[in-house]
C-alpha cells in the first residue's frame, strides 16, 4: 500500500514540501482537503495578472472542412486564415476536424481512469528522464525547479513508435486511434501552413521529416487547488515541436500570452486547440511565433487536458526553410531536432528559452 501524504493542521504554517515528497499532487490534494497548500507551490507572489478577457473571443477559429475542401476558393480562404492565425496569434481553434466526439470522450474517460489508479499501480511508469518512452510524474520539472506546479502528468512517445501504458484496460487502444488521427490532422494543418508561407504543400513535411517525426502524448490532471490565487498548474512556457493539438475536459485553465496580455482560452465544444511551437517558428524564419502559455487553477473542479506535441524527425537538421531565406536573412541557427529537444529540457531547468539561444540577431 502507498503511504498516505503528510497532512498538517490548517492553523500551522504551511510546510515547504518538495514535489518528490509528494509524488502525486492528486493524491496529496485528495488527502489535504481544504488545508493551506505547501509554500513550495507558491508561484504567484504579486497577485494574479490582469486577464484581457475582451480578447478571448478574438482567438481565431479554423474550419478544417474548408481547409480540406476540393473547392479551390474555399481552400484558399482557409489557407489564408490559417496563415493569419499563425502570424498574428500562434493559437487557434480547429472545428470540424473529423475526429468523432465518441473517440474524444473515450480518450478523456480513459485518461481520467489512468490518473485515478492507485499511486502504487502507476509506480512502474515513474519518470526516468526525457527519453523514457512512458513517464508519469508531477509538477513541471521537479528535479530542478524552485517552485512546484499543481499538476500530475503522463507523457508518452507515441510516434514514430507507439508506446503506451498497458492500464487501465482499453486506454492503449483508444490512445493509438486518437494519436494517429491527431497526427493526420496535424499533417493537413502543416500542409496548409506550408501553402500559407508560399511554399508547396508538402514542403514543411519534407523539410522536417514529419512522417517519421516525434509525437508526445501528454495527459495532464490539475486537481482542485484550495488556494488557486497562489499556485499555477504550469508556468509560462512554449512547446518544443511544430504544432501542439490540445483537447480538454469542460474546465477552463489554459491562458495564452498575446501582446503581453494573458487571455483565457474558452474552447468551442469538441474543438482542438492548436498552438504554434518552437520548431514552426524556426522553419518559418520567425513569421509564425511559438506562443507562450500557462495553466491556471480553480478550487472546485478537476481539470484535464490532453495536448499532443507533433514535431520533426529527431535526426533532421532544423533551421529556416531555404526558400524562405533566399531573399531575407536567416534569423535562427540550424540544429538537429534531437539536440534541440535535449537542450530544451536542460534550459527549462535553468528557466531559459532555447529559442533565444537559436536567434541570430
Ligand atoms: O493544460 C493546458 O491547457 C496546457 C498544457 C501544456 O501547456 C503542456 O502540457 O505543456
TrEMBL record:
<dbReference type="GO" id="GO:0031418">
    <property type="term" value="F:L-ascorbic acid binding"/>
</dbReference>
<keyword id="KW-0479">Metal-binding</keyword>
<protein>
    <recommendedName>
        <fullName>Fe2OG dioxygenase domain-containing protein</fullName>
    </recommendedName>
</protein>
<keyword id="KW-0560">Oxidoreductase</keyword>
<feature type="domain" description="Fe2OG dioxygenase">
    <location>
        <begin position="212"/>
        <end position="312"/>
    </location>
</feature>
<keyword id="KW-0847">Vitamin C</keyword>
<dbReference type="InterPro" id="IPR050295">
    <property type="entry name" value="Plant_2OG-oxidoreductases"/>
</dbReference>
<dbReference type="GO" id="GO:0016491">
    <property type="term" value="F:oxidoreductase activity"/>
</dbReference>
<dbReference type="InterPro" id="IPR026992">
    <property type="entry name" value="DIOX_N"/>
</dbReference>
<dbReference type="Pfam" id="PF14226">
    <property type="entry name" value="DIOX_N"/>
</dbReference>
<dbReference type="InterPro" id="IPR005123">
    <property type="entry name" value="Oxoglu/Fe-dep_dioxygenase_dom"/>
</dbReference>
<dbReference type="InterPro" id="IPR027443">
    <property type="entry name" value="IPNS-like_sf"/>
</dbReference>
<dbReference type="GO" id="GO:0046872">
    <property type="term" value="F:metal ion binding"/>
</dbReference>
<keyword id="KW-0408">Iron</keyword>
<dbReference type="InterPro" id="IPR044861">
    <property type="entry name" value="IPNS-like_FE2OG_OXY"/>
</dbReference>
<dbReference type="Pfam" id="PF03171">
    <property type="entry name" value="2OG-FeII_Oxy"/>
</dbReference>
<comment type="similarity">
    <text>Belongs to the iron/ascorbate-dependent oxidoreductase family.</text>
</comment>
Amino acid at each position: 500500500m502507498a503511504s498516505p501524504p503528510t497532512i498538517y493542521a490548517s492553523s500551522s504554517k504551511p510546510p515547504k514540501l518538495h514535489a518528490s515528497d509528494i509524488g502525486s499532487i492528486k493524491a496529496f490534494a485528495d488527502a489535504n482537503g481544504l488545508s493551506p497548500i505547501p509554500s513550495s507551490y507558491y508561484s504567484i507572489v504579486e497577485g494574479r495578472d490582469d486577464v484581457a478577457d475582451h480578447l478571448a473571443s478574438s482567438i481565431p477559429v479554423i474550419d478544417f472542412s474548408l481547409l480540406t475542401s476540393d473547392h479551390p476558393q474555399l481552400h484558399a480562404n482557409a489557407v489564408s486564415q490559417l496563415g493569419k492565425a499563425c502570424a498574428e496569434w500562434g493559437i487557434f481553434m480547429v472545428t470540424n476536424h473529423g475526429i468523432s466526439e465518441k473517440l474524444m470522450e473515450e480518450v478523456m474517460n480513459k485518461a481520467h481512469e489512468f490518473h485515478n489508479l492507485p499511486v502504487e499501480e502507476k509506480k512502474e511508469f515513474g519518470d526516468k528522464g526525457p527519453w523514457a518512452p512512458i513517464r508519469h510524474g508531477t509538477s513541471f520539472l521537479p528535479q530542478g525547479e524552485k517552485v512546484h506546479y499543481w499538476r500530475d502528468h503522463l507523457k508518452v512517445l507515441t510516434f514514430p513508435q507507439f508506446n503506451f501504458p498497458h492500464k487501465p484496460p482499453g486506454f492503449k487502444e483508444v490512445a493509438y486511434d486518437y494519436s494517429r488521427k491527431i497526427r493526420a490532422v496535424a499533417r493537413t494543418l502543416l500542409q496548409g501552413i506550408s501553402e500559407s508561407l508560399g511554399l508547396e504543400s508538402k514542403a514543411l513535411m519534407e523539410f522536417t521529416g514529419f512522417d517519421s517525426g516525434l509525437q508526445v502524448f501528454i495527459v495532464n490532471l490539475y486537481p482542485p487547488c484550495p488556494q488557486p490565487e497562489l499556485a499555477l498548474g504550469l508556468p509560462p512556457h512554449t512547446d518544443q515541436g511544430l504544432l501542439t493539438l490540445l483537447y480538454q475536459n469542460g474546465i477552463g485553465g489554459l491562458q495564452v500570452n498575446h501582446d503581453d496580455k494573458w487571455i483565457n482560452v474558452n474552447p468551442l465544444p469538441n474543438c482542438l486547440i492548436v498552438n504554434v511551437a518552437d520548431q514552426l517558428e524556426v522553419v518559418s524564419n520567425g513569421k509564425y511565433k511559438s506562443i507562450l502559455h500557462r495553466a491556471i487553477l480553480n478550487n472546485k473542479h478537476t481539470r484535464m487536458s490532453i495536448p499532443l506535441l507533433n514535431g520533426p524527425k529527431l535526426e533532421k537538421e532544423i533551421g529556416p526553410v531555404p526558400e524562405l531565406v533566399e531573399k531575407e536573412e536567416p534569423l535562427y541557427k540550424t540544429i538537429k531536432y534531437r539536440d534541440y529537444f535535449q537542450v530544451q529540457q536542460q534550459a527549462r531547468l535553468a528557466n531559459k528559452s532555447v529559442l533565444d539561444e537559436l536567434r541570430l540577431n
